[in-house]
Every structure is written in C-alpha cells, then in structure tokens.
Amino acid sequence: METKAEYRAHLKTRRDGLPADARAAWSRSLCQHLERLCRERRCTRIGAFWPFGSEVDLRPAVASHPGWHWFFPKVASTHPPRLAWGTEPLEKGHWGLLEPALALHFLPPVQLLLVPGLAFDEGGHRLGYGRGFYDALLAKLPEEVLTVGVGFEAQMHLPMPVEPHDWPVMALLSERGLRLLKPGA
Predict the structure, then answer these.
(1) Of the options 1.20.120.680, 3.30.390.50, 3.40.50.10900, 3.40.50.10420, the CATH number for the domain spanning 4-180
(2) Per-residue confidence (pLDDT) for residue 1, from 0 to 100
(3) Residue 18: predicted pLDDT
(4) Which CA distances in Å does 20 have to 15, 27, 55, 137?
(5) Where are the domains positioned within the chain?
(6) Are 125 and 182 in contact (CB under 8 A)?
C-alpha cells in the first residue's frame, strides 16, 4: 500500500471480511472486559460510539448499564474537525452515523473515552477514517481521562504510518481484554 487512503481501504475491507457471527461474539466479549474495567476504575461516565458498519458493537454494554452516563459523538464541524458530545436519544447524522440529537459538550465530561479505529499499533497510535476528529479531541482532553482504543484483535498491533498530529491512546481493548500502554494509566 502506498498511501494512507489505500491502507485504510485495505483495513476496512479486512474488517468487513471478518465473519459477522464472530464479530458479534467478539463484541460481547469485549463488552464484558469493558464492564470489568468500568467497575474496577469506578467509571460511570463513558464516551462511546454507536457501531458503524463492521465496527465493534458496544450496545450490549450500554444496554446493560442504563444508570451509567454514556456520551456519544456528533459531528459539529468538518473543517476544522470537531465533535460535540451528548447522550441518547440518537438520530442519523453525518455519513449515516447515529449521533445524539442534542450535543452540548465539546469536551466529553467522561472518565473513560472509547476510541474507534481501523487499526492500532503497539504504541496506541490509531488509523481512523482520515477526517481527524479523534486526533483533534485527544489533543485537548484532560490527562485524567483514560483513552482506550477499541477494536477486534485482528485490528491490533498493526504497522502504520504515524504523523506529528497523531495522538496515541493510553490502552487497547479487544475481545482478548485490556492492555495498558502508558505507565500510570
């Protein structure tokens, strides 16, 4: 692959090719690890995302814990890339993504932020869809927010180009469990 766009297309095709029943089982397993992490760290304010295409499905965790505060992203601006955050109800927004109908926070008021991606490397760098929304957010988040890259194990530990504006996450979460990457995280 010569360009990031080609690599993204390859990674998306690769993820789309994972069997749907396996993705569903892996998502349930990942949600169990997420619930354990939240209980251990007493996290009840979580920044999450609704699944898009073949992404990890966090809905089982959201449904299992209605007393927790789940914040979801909404595209507030594409130039510059900026997300706003709110709770349910969700409605279709940019690119068919489910987004909160009302999003009042430019920095999510969370203890834990779950970050989607097409791939993650050993250092927590991610390759997303190329619009820069999460890199812009990660650059502004308070240090005490635990940032966790979320994906299937097949998306983890892959080589990728890293640029100066790319911000790593502190941990990775897959169906195999949580891996802390940053000391003290």
Answers:
(1) 3.40.50.10420
(2) 53
(3) 96
(4) 10, 10, 10, 30
(5) 4-180
(6) no
Which tokens go with 15? 């993820």
Whether residue 55 is annotated as binding a ligand: the answer is yes
Is 74 annotated to bind a ligand? Reply is no
Q: Is 4 annotated as a binding residue?
A: yes
Residue 37 assigned ligand-binding role: no
Would the annotation count 132 as a binding residue?
Answer: yes
Does the predicted TM-score (pTM) go above 0.85? yes
How many whole angstroms separate alpha carbon 146 and alpha carbon 56? 19
- Is 104 annotated as a binding-site member? no
Q: Where are the beta strands (DSSP E) in the chain?
A: 45-47, 69-78, 81-86, 90-92, 98-100, 112-116, 119-120, 126-127, 146-150, 171-174, 177-180
Question: How many other CB atoms are found less than 10 A from the CB of residue 35?
Answer: 15
Q: Is 6 annotated as a binding residue?
A: yes
Residue 134 annotated in ligand binding: yes
149: annotated binding-site residue? no
- What token pair was written down for 47? 């920044």
- Sequence length of the chain is 185
Q: In the chain, which residues have pLDDT < 70?
A: 1, 184
Q: Tell me the one-letter amino acid at 109.
A: P
